[in-house]
Design a protein that fits this description.
InterPro entries: GlcN6P_deaminase-like, Glucosamine6P_isomerase_CS, NagB/RpiA_transferase-like. It comes from Catonella massiliensis. GO terms for molecular function: isomerase activity. Keywords: Isomerase. The protein contains ten helices and ten strands. It has one domain: Rossmann fold. The chain has a seven-stranded parallel beta sheet with strand order 1-10-9-6-2-3-5, sandwiched between helices. Strands 4-8-7 form a three-stranded antiparallel beta sheet, with no helix packed on it. It is an alpha/beta fold.
């Protein structure tokens, strides 16, 4: 059966979505908007003397250059900010891939974010958190200790995954929503699309395993902000906003979240 929403025009797409959709001029506007929201949340909490807790992706990543620039230029302290990264690739032995590996999300966050922020402003190492295959309970416990996540930022994968929470058809909606940080084997379609984006299609060199924060950690964030910017996101955005709620397309389970939006450039809103 073909699904009509895949052919929705921009006007039809924005008319009555189950998740708020925001069409912007181009990808840079999406990234700038994400960075601006990061900065605004930190400044608001700093003024009140409160912590800021973000779940952060490495994909999309375009927001970070604008965030770093704003922090350094505005002299915004990150001393009370926690960045909890969504995921990381693992070796076949279920260990983190090397931080020096070009695919490493840890390596990216250090080289493109933490190392570029003024040392007087950047948060301490203990507040730069990555899911650890040797300490699966650490992130849920930390989030509980910190009083929750202010904003979860992220993207959406080809099969609807957020972080590496990929489809698990055998689970009920409630079971999927309660999934926490864990080690997973990456689905073939995700390895393929990521190989195209990161390794010029060299799928044999893509890691087979990952560690991801759980859908529970994501769905319990106070706000969720997702950015989509690739050609194939045309279909992903339409299914996320108009498809049925199903564990076969995990982002659809966020349709019931009270404060979520998906931002994307104009090209995603248009059908070729």
């Amino acid at each position: 059966m073909r699904h009509g929403y895949y052919n929705y025009s921009k006007e039809e797409l924005l008319k009555n979505p189950k998740i708020e959709l925001i069409s912007m001029e181009d990808g840079e506007k999406v990234f700038q908007s994400m960075a601006e929201e990061m900065v605004a949340e930190i400044e608001k909490n700093n003024e009140m003397g409160e912590n800021t807790v973000f779940i952060c992706p490495v994909g999309p990543v375009g927001q970070y250059k604008y965030f770093v620039e704003a922090v350094n230029k505005g002299r915004i302290s990150l001393k009370n900010v926690w960045f909890i990264n969504m995921d990381e690739y693992l070796t076949d032995e279920k260990e983190w891939i090397s931080k020096d590996d070009p695919l490493s999300f840890r390596g990216f966050m250090y080289s493109e974010v933490y190392d570029k922020i003024d040392k007087d402003l950047v948060m301490p190492e203990s507040q730069r958190v990555f899911p650890d295959p040797k300490r699966l309970g650490r992130i849920p416990e930390l989030i509980n200790e910190l009083g929750g996540v202010d904003i979860c930022f992220g993207g959406i994968g080809i099969n609807g995954h957020v972080a590496f929470n990929e489809p698990e058809e055998g689970l009920s909606v409630d079971e999927f929503r309660n999934l926490q940080t864990r080690v997973l084997e990456i689905k073939p379609e995700t390895r393929a699309i990521n190989a195209v984006g990161a390794l010029n299609g060299a799928i044999e060199d893509m890691p087979r395993y990952c560690i991801t924060i759980g859908f529970k950690e994501i769905s319990e964030a106070k706000k969720i902000r997702l950015g989509c910017f690739r050609d194939w996101h045309r279909a992903v955005v339409r299914r996320a906003a108009y498809g049925e709620m199903t564990t076969e397309f995990p982002v659809s389970l966020l349709q019931s979240h009270k404060d979520i939006n998906i931002k994307f450039p104009r090209l995603v809103a248009e059908i070729k």
